[in-house]
């Protein structure tokens, strides 16, 4: 299985030439290959050092014996460890001394999957860890192959086991295997819990596979003198790191490949021991899941997602059938197989390559069914009709034994048996309920029990929509279908295949009667009946994808009046979204009346906050709820301040809105400056108004001051027209403060925004004024801007394609360049698919508005980029904001979100104004615990972060944990545009639902070509450039801190020089620009009041002399402009 490393999509089988065995060699036909996580790291190019070929353990059948080869005969099954050409092959030629005889009692898949796990666990715990009876051992990832083997061995030794696993199902499996203390491996809380359980003592031995905080926590709970056994490869501790940790423990990193190189005879003895113990039953075989030969890539993806328990095995080419769901050598069961749906399924299975069917039913086939079964037999299939009651376990066990003997091993089960007996609850009795539940529930449970030892590829239950929505008169039937969901959970928790399909109404069989009775209800819901072809296509997709649950319900087109009843559904189905209904707090253009009472003041504040946030006024019921949680950001804070100040002629400190403002706090600020009318003596009576009648507006009462004569309609119109202000005047008033500020800056010569650059010179730029400036206001962190290979690709694209495209992407505007770029991004990030946009801003705004709907919850960091904030606000979803990097607040919001809505957490990976990173491990832990989705904006981290430049996931060694990876093509990638990457199905959805993609011009050819070429350059030169970048960052940070500047908490190439006031930031910028250091300020409202700063962005192309030049200028600026702000490192240490 060759292919380029870097993405699982590149893992594929390719033709090879078989080699006849030479002296002392054997040729094997590979029957099964065990899959290890090492193989996934190998394919992704993430394994440190030389990973060797794929497939470290396999079982084959001897097909040829070379001269002098001993120990195996043609036809025998043998095990091979670490074959030189890898185990993912149809045939291998190996030295005879490399093979091990497989005991006859061991199934092939078991033999191909147990040895590496057993030997690794035994060598680690018994030989290196010297685990003794009564000792306490912590085993991480205990539901995996090595983990389960370690649990088994530790229990046999009499040790006490604490295990961790990453999902509730895996933890349930461990408890079922006798482990009493099981914890979550995705949370570091296991450390405190262990210390609590052991009264502070800790554990004697750790078998570790965690990294980062999990590794540190595991080291912390080890007793002095304890043994730490490291299985992982991504974060190995050095002696110096171990010494710095202060832990007096034994630390050993190991694997059995090294053992085989050092002590081959010893490894051989351990392998023989593993096979013998498994064959005799002394070693309990772990769950094994098999994949067909042509599903090898799917198997690797499944392993990468860490959703499995036990071991995964890919069967050899000889065992593969003609489809992804059937095998020629297996038999397939269909209960209820003589009904219309059962027969339809049987015909589909035969078309898919099945050759042995057992059709189970309580009656004999009628003439029509016999004719259809005869047609299957005529096509070459063997069809056995088995008269059996699946609800009677003994009867079923006998029938399945005959099936195995006559048709071969059972590979798949379809449970389609069922009975409908409608009746309202008051008319039901136990016998009627049992009549419905018996074939569905008892039958499914018996099938589960009686196939536990069969090598099943899938176990599929036919459920119904009624199990989810309920159905009048079908309580028993709905309960039976709901039971299927529980059985699927039960099986999957034990590493067994299981799928339930909740079918909508069919046009055939028993379901037609149900559909007829529910026809009116289904029409109201927009549901139509299911055709045979589309139903079988859904079945194939579910089994191929190893789906846990699928709802298969065809929807008909809805009339316009019906769509109004289903706005969420309409948004999915229509090209044009329905207008989202909003209830404005105040009519457009109107303002609340002046406050007359304290209550009026509160209401005025509520109205203005609601208007700025774009939410209904009735959402603001909690006076003490932080406004940040409702979506208030720094820009909105300024808007809110200006609005209220203009309405009430008061002053609101921006510092108040930059902290943790609440509605109650805002009212108190206003109360201190604005005295409500009820606190003063009124000087004149309030004018009264006539009640408005239909078609008229309220006017002052006759006789009131300023009221026109009752008969003078012309005067009324003229008065109204005079009272209305010109829109131009309103706009001018709104813009006046900004114009005044800009004019002052230009007059003082300190306006440096939009300074035209006329030429690039690596890390220097030439300005329109004829000056050459050292660039520190760049996003080209790796210095790829102007790279000759990228420029050449862009120029070539103009020559080949021209400067633009024929339209939008869906209508004539897609070039092969766009598709190649999307594939390249997906491969680079290890994702299934990607979508590119013309700008990063429209990527965030478009994706969020397409993904979210009213009723959903979206939660973001306080300092997320404006495009994220705007997209969240425009989506119509409930938008909540937590204080910057306050993950306790994030968890509170996740707990507050309703359990039955889509929950999305969206964050920046690298916050571009402070330079700090998101805590990805903790965010992922919270998102998974609360069943939310995660979207991360990688604008400033792609290419710059991580060992391989893959961004925040690479930085934390957590590949594939982000559901939606967003990024821009205008930072490290020196082009323009944005992208989003994720699963194929999610990207496909966004392709047809994202308005900023559907209705925007395609990315121009030279831009797409530049981005595509940049990824190639990034692969070739990225590592060296990142090394230079981080060296420059360290040099700059060290120098700034020695000068005494506050650089915040930055850990990236974005370095803030925080100088407090806006005046200081402007002065520092001007000082630098005048000395040809190109740097720019960042001021409120983009950052909190009192934290204005100069932002320095570092490049890999900066030299030591460039960095030192910048430091010299900044040192002189600090001494000249604000020496009182400087706090040199040495001075602070002395203090």
Topology record:
Elements: E1 25-35, H1 37-44, E2 57-65, E3 77-81, E4 91-95, E5 99-101, H2 108-128, E6 136-139, H3 145-157, E7 160-165, H4 168-176, E8 181-184, H5 190-197, E9 203-208, H6 212-220, E10 222-230, H7 239-245, E11 250-253, H8 256-262, H9 264-280, E12 288-291, H10 296-304, E13 311-315, E14 331-335, H11 340-351, E15 356-361, H12 367-378, E16 382-387, H13 393-407, E17 410-415, H14 430-450, E18 458-464, H15 466-469, H16 475-493, E19 499-503, H17 510-517, H18 519-525, H19 532-544, E20 549-552, H20 560-563, H21 567-573, H22 598-613, H23 634-648, H24 654-658, H25 663-673, H26 713-723, H27 727-748, E21 757-761, E22 764-767, E23 772-775, H28 788-801, H29 816-829, E24 833-837, H30 840-851, E25 857-861, H31 866-875, E26 878-882, H32 887-896, E27 903-908, H33 920-929, E28 933-937, H34 952-955, E29 964-968, E30 978-982, H35 984-993, H36 995-998, H37 1005-1043, E31 1054-1060, H38 1062-1074, E32 1077-1078, E33 1080-1082, E34 1092-1097, H39 1104-1121, H40 1129-1134
Parallel strand pairs: 6-7, 6-9, 7-8, 9-10, 10-11, 12-13, 14-15, 14-17, 15-16, 17-18, 18-19, 19-20, 23-32, 25-26, 25-27, 27-28, 28-29
Antiparallel strand pairs: 1-2, 1-4, 1-13, 2-3, 3-5, 21-22, 22-23, 24-30, 29-30, 31-34, 33-34
Helix pairs in contact: 2-3, 2-9, 4-16, 8-9, 11-12, 13-14, 14-16, 22-23, 22-25, 28-37, 29-37, 30-31, 32-33, 37-39, 38-39
